[in-house]
Amino acid sequence: MTALPSLFLSHGAPDLPLSDHPAKRFLAGLSSQLPQPKSILVISAHWQAEVPTLTTAARPETIYDFSGFPQPLYSLKYPAESDVELIEQAKALLEGAGMPVGQDPRRGYDHGTWVPLLLAYGDADIPVVQLSLQHSGSARRHFEIGQALSPLRQKGVLIIGSGAAVHNLGTMMPEGTPAPNWAIEFEQWLDDNIQARNLDLLLEFPKTPEEARQAHPTPEHLMPIFVAMGAGWSGGHASRLHHSYSYGSISMACYAFGREVETNAFN
After folding, report:
1. Is 1 a member of any domain?
2. How many domains does the chain have?
C-alpha cells in the first residue's frame, strides 16, 4: 500500500462550516485530492493531556467546546465510529518509542476534529480516532510523536494535525480584514523553513522567531503541525496546500508532508 501523506489543517473558527470562506471550499475539495483512507487519526489543538491520550469510545460524541455562535452550528454532528485496530496500533507504536499512552473512553470529537472532517469527509463513514497533544510538550516532543506514528501511513491511516498556523484570538477582526504584518511575517517564517527543511530551527518554536509570541500567545495551536511533520518528514516532501486568513489574523494555511498532493481550484 502506498503511504498516505500526513496533513496539517488550520481549522479556523467553529463557524467555518456555515461560512463561504475560501478555506471552507478548500477543505470541501480536499478528499478528492487524496487516496481514500482506511481510517483517520486526528491530533487536535483543543485537547491536551499529561501523556498522549487516545479516544476509545465506540462512537465518540460531537463536542461543542465553544459558545456564542449561531444556533445552527450546535445541530451539526459528526457521528464517525472509532477504530479499535488503529487504537491498538497507535498505542503500540508510541509505547515502542518509549512514550506512555493514555486512553479516554469518555472523550468526544472536539471542533478541531469535527470541523475539518465535516467538510472534507462529510459522510462520516471513515473511522476516526483522536489523539491528544502532550501538555507542556515541546515542538520536538510532538515531532517525535509524529515520527513514532509514521508507520500508520503505510497502513492506510490519514494522520491529521489540526490547529492554526497563526492563532491569536485577542487580535481577531471582522471577516475580510487584511492580515496584520506580524501574522504575515510569522507565517512566512514557517513556510520558508518548512520548504528549506530547516528542522532544527522549526523545532525551536516558540522560542524562535520573535513573531511567535504574538502569532501564538500560547503554543498549542501550532503543536499539531509538528506531529504531522514528524509523521511525514522522512518522505522528503512538504507542500503548502492552502493559504488564506480568517477574522483578520487567523492563518488558515494547510500543509502535506511525506507525499505530494495535488491542490484543487480552491487553494
Report:
1. no
2. 1
- Check whether the bond before 52 is cis (ω within 30° of 0): no
- Cis omega (within 30 of 0) for bond into 206: yes
On whether residue 236 sits in a domain, the answer given is yes
264 within a domain of the structure (yes/no)? no
For β-strands 53-55 and 39-49, DSSP reports them as unpaired
Q: Tell me how far apart the alpha carbons of residues 198 and 207 are, in angstroms, rounded to a whole number.
A: 15
Q: What cell does 240 get?
A: 503548502
Contact 166, 249 (CB under 8 A): yes
The CATH number of the domain where 66 resides is what? 3.40.830.10
* Structure-block grid coordinates of residue 28: 470541501
Contacts of 99 (CB under 8 A, 6+ apart): 51, 52, 144, 145, 148
Res 2 pLDDT > 50: yes
Is residue 218 included in any domain, yes or no? Answer: yes
Look up residue 24 and give its DSSP letter: H
For residues 254 and 191, the answer to whether their CB atoms sit within 8 Å is no
Taking residues 18-41, report their average pLDDT. Answer: 96
| Domain interval for residue 211 | 6-257
At 153 the three-state DSSP class reads helix
Distance CA 56, CA 128 (A): 10
Mean pLDDT of 129-157: 98
